[in-house]
Design goal:
This protein is an alpha/beta fold. Helices cover about 15% and strands about 20% of the residues. The protein is built from 3 helices and 7 strands, in the order H-E-H-E-H-E-E-E-E-E. The strands form 2 sheets. Strands 3-2-1-7 form a 4-stranded parallel β-sheet. A hairpin with an 8-residue loop joins strand 5 and strand 6. The protein is globular and about 35 Å long.
């Protein structure tokens, strides 16, 4: 699978190289969600312990897109929703998947409210499609 418009060049056009991204989170670790993860090792990775454990339990060759996250700055999330900036603008919601895997993370962003930390963006290369439309 490939995209005619890869993520890293799209971010560059917007003026956000990977080094400018403060936080990184995935809804889950399917290859189409973590394909660019190693580019964001300077970001703080927000992840549930069960998801991190599952990611690094697979064969090393299957970790090639995200293996460098293992030593990056990481915040281990609990089974509660996580307010990324502490101001309600971006909340990682705990939600279940339709298949038996660790809990995934969905994202809820407050509408019509500027992020108090907007000087540095939040990259969320996964999809939050496990949440109702009104929560995304």
């Amino acid at each position: 699978m490939s995209s005619p418009r890869p993520l890293i060049p799209q971010l560059a056009v917007l003026g956000y190289p990977p080094a400018a991204i403060t936080y990184l989170a995935f809804s889950h670790y399917h290859f189409d969600h973590v394909a660019n993860a190693n580019a964001f090792t300077g970001s703080t990775w927000l992840v549930h312990q069960a998801e991190s454990d599952a990611m690094f339990a697979v064969k090393p060759q299957e970790q090639s897109a995200y293996n460098r996250l293992k030593t990056s700055k990481t915040v281990i999330l609990t089974d509660a929703d996580y307010d990324v900036f502490g101001d309600g603008t971006v909340i990682i919601k705990v939600c279940s998947r339709p298949h038996p895997r660790p809990p995934s993370a969905g994202v809820e962003a407050a509408e019509n409210r500027p992020c108090s930390h907007c000087r540095r963006p939040l990259a969320l290369p996964g999809r939050a499609n496990n949440l109702r439309r009104s929560q995304v």
